[in-house]
Amino acid sequence: MRLRVGVVHAAFEGVQIFVGGVGTVIRGQIAAFPHVREALLHHGVEIVPHFIEIAYAPAHPHYDAQAFAHYRELIDKAGGTFSVVPSGTTGLAADAVWGDAGLGELRNWQIASAALAGRLIDLATRCDTLVSYCHEPVFAFAPVHASLQAEAAGVDLTAVYVSHATAYAHEMPLPNPDRLMVESLPVHWAKVTPRVRLGAISGHMSKHLVQDYGADPQTFVPAGNGVDTTDHWYRGRTSADISRMLARHGIPVDRDLLVTTGRGVPYKRHDMLIRAAAELRGAAHPVVMSDPELPELRKLAASLMVDATFVTSFDRELMASLVQWDRTKILSLPAKNEPWGMIPMEARLLARDSGAILVAADSGGFPEQITDGVDGFLHTPDDPSALARVIDRVLALDQSEQDAVRRSGAERVLRNQSWPCKIIESLRAVIPEVDEVADAVLDQLRTDGSWVLR
Question: Looking at the domain 3-229+418-451, which fold is it?
Answer without folding.
Answer: Rossmann fold (3.40.50)
